[in-house]
Structure formats: C-alpha cells, structure tokens
From TrEMBL:
UniProtKB keywords: Disulfide bond, Extracellular matrix, Glycoprotein, Hyaluronic acid, Immunoglobulin domain, Repeat, Secreted, Signal
Name listed for the protein in its UniProt record: Hyaluronan and proteoglycan link protein 4
Disulfide topology: 211-232, 310-331
Reported function: Essential for the proper localization of brevican (BCAN), mainly as a perineuronal nets (PNNs)-type deposition in the brainstem and cerebellum thereby playing a key role in the formation and structural organization of PNNs. Contributes to the formation and transmission of inhibitory GABAergic synapses between Purkinje cells and deep cerebellar nuclei neurons.
Source lineage: Eukaryota, Metazoa, Chordata, Craniata, Vertebrata
Family: Belongs to the HAPLN family.
C-alpha cells in the first residue's frame, strides 16, 4: 500500500491520521475475523436504521411459545427492503455470541438448537420480532436483535426469562464436591441448568434459605440466607444472597444451584404393597411406562403442579425425597419444600418411588384412573 508524502506540521498530522485509518481498514496484516462491528444510531444522529426493543424482559415457561420483540425504522426511499438483514444472536457472556437466526430478503435460517423452532413474526413493515416455539431451559438468557443495511446497523437487546424453581444440589459423594463444569453437568442430569444470579435472588425473595455455597451460571459462588445463624456466617450477619465472588472453575469445589421450569410430563408417587430397593423402584416405574423421576422434575412438580406427598421415595440419582406444599407436623417441618433424606444404600427396602411419565402422561396412570372410576360408581 502506497503511503502519502507529508510536508509541514498540519500535513504531517493529517497524513498520520490517514495512514492509521488506512492500516486499520486495508492492511492485510489486520484481521477482523471473529470480531463484530456494530454501528449504533443515536437519537441525535441521522442514520438509515434504528432498532427498538421492548424494555424489561419477556417471560414464558419450558415448552411454551414466546415472541422476542424487535422493530426497526429505515428510509425506504434510499434502500430496497430486501437489502435489510435481520440477525438474532444469544449473548452467552459479555464477549461471546452464538447465532440463533438470520434473514435476508426471502431467505431465513435458524442455527443449532433453534432449528425448526424459530421464525420472524413479520407483522407489518419493520417488524423483526422472533417467534421461538417449544422453549427449552437452554433458551434462557439475553438476545441481541441486529438490523443491517449496506451502510448502517443498529442493535437492541431482549431478555428471555422462564417461570420455574431454583433448587440446591450436591451428588451422592457429598457436599462441596463439584467444580464449575461438574456442577453444570449435575444440573443437566437432574433436568435443570445452573441458575443465574437473578433466579437465585428471586428464590431468596420467595424464602429460599440454604447454608451451603453453590455455583451459578456466571462462574460465581453464592448462597441465600433468610434466617442468619452461627453455622451460616454468624447469627448477627445480614440476610441476603451472600457472594464468594468468581472462583476458579477447574480447581475449586462447591455445590450447585440449579434451575428448572415447567414439566413436559407428570411426576407421581407410585403406591405399592411393599417398600422397594432402588433397583425394584426403577423396575416398578418401567412397568408403568415411566422412569424414575429426577430431582429437578420433583421440584418442578412441587412448585408448579403443587405435588404434595408425605411419603419418601427413590429418585433417579439415588436420593430419597418427598414434596410438601401444605406443611404439617408429621411431615418434617413448618415450611413448604422438598424434603431430603439423603443417599441411603440402594439395597435398602425402606421407601416408595416417584416416577415420571413424559408427553401424554399428564393424566394419572391407568390404575389410578380405574380406582377413580370405581369410587365414582359407589359414591355418586
């Protein structure tokens, strides 16, 4: 690239600026690969594209359908509408984006886990709103709507929130045994994802009190305290979500705070004539076309479907738990919640079992239906 010859102070300054711009934009040694160029159009500027998104957040539940709102304005006299490119991305952390959906003219494409679930709403000119069907736990988070023509682009941000429940979790090995990556895996195995700070804070507002610190999705370690006590950071300390800060994701070990949402099936306690071992419990569920319920599924059934059962039962991870919506003296405490009896030897025949049936399992098992019909026949 030929550089200009400069004479005089003013010319030297002008040429220096010109050379810097030339190097930044045209030099083969400067790569823009992997970087994202965003030109924001402010209110006091004249630009071809201005993007508007709704303030706050949009809320749905797992399995639902949601619209991520986004509208744009542009000068139709200067550009063909088919030149407008609409791109949706998910912000996975402040510097990382994953592609969700792109549209240019009549061409539209969804990416990764969003394939087959996304489409533009297209409710009149300037509507870039995205419809997301069959929402998953992994869809939770912040999304960016970017609208671009040949010269300008602008972006807006939308937060997708889910209705659900936060639950603390540690595996059979005991407390403080999980690094960050193991905590992520543990939540997924129990039908959840690592909770965000916002989700944990909301759970604390609703009464969650837990004395063990756990990983959150941003790599921080925190825990919610509503009832200060000596064993949880001293009795005279303040209530709130206590923060250990960002910890080393590979080397440091804690519990996990998981989040789950609406069930796509049903959890129920399987009434049997005798208590079961873990293996027998798994077979009993399988005989009904079901599987052992996971911890997250039991929490969702307790929180969302108001499952209330004062009988302890096996779960998929080998723990024994039971859900209480209406506390009573003989059912383990004065507060509602999912009670845990830990991880006993799987050979013990001391417990019942909680089963989970997917899809059409919203209705009770056939045996329960038959019992209801017999009751109606003798009482109605």
């Amino acid at each position: 690239m030929a550089m200009p010859v400069c004479k005089g102070l003013l010319q030297v300054l002008s040429c220096t600026l010109a050379m810097l711009l030339a190097l930044a934009s045209g030099s083969p040694g400067v790569s823009e690969k992997g970087r994202r160029k965003i030109v924001h159009v402010l209110a006091d500027q004249t630009g071809d594209v201005v993007v508007q998104t709704a303030p706050g957040k949009v809320v749905t539940h797992r399995g639902g359908t949601i619209i991520l709102p986004c509208r744009y304005h542009y000068d139709t006299s200067l550009h063909d509408p088919d030149e407008i490119r609409i791109k949706w991305t998910k912000i996975t952390d402040p510097m990382t984006f994953s592609d969700v959906f792109v549209a240019l003219g009549g061409e539209q494409k969804a990416f990764g886990i969003y394939k087959g679930r996304c489409a533009l709403q297209e409710d009149g000119p300037g509507d870039a709103s995205l419809i997301v069907k069959n929402v998953t736990l992994q869809d939770y988070g912040r999304y960016e709507c970017e609208v671009t023509n040949e010269l300008e682009d602008d972006t807006g941000m939308v937060k997708l929130d889910l209705e659900g429940v936060v639950f603390p979790y540690h595996p059979r090995l005991g407390r403080y045994k999980l690094n960050f990556h193991e905590a992520q895996k543990a939540c997924l195995e129990q039908d959840g994802i690592l909770a965000s700070y916002d989700q944990l804070h909301e759970a604390w507002v609703e009464g969650l009190d837990w004395c063990n610190a756990g990983w959150l999705d941003d790599g921080s370690v925190q825990y919610p305290i509503s009832n200060p006590r000596e064993q949880c950071g001293k009795k005279d300390s303040a209530v709130g979500v206590r923060n250990y800060g960002y910890r080393h994701k590979d080397d440091e070990l804690y519990d996990a705070f998981c989040f789950t949402s609406n069930l796509n099936g049903r959890v129920y306690f399987l009434k049997t004539y005798r208590k079961l071992s873990y293996a027998e419990a798994a077979k009993a569920c399988e005989a009904q076309g079901a599987v052992l319920a996971k911890v997250g599924q039991l929490y969702a059934a307790w929180k969302i479907q108001l499952l209330d059962r004062c009988e302890a039962g096996w779960l998929e991870d080998g723990s024994i738990r039971y859900p209480i919506v209406n506390p009573r003296a003989r059912c383990g405490g004065r507060e509602p919640g999912v009670r845990s009896l830990g991880f006993p030897d799987k050979k013990y025949k001391l417990f019942g079992v909680y089963c989970y049936r997917n899809g059409t399992a919203q209705s009770p098992p056939a045996r329960m239906q038959e019992g209801i019909q017999r009751w109606k026949a003798t009482h109605v």
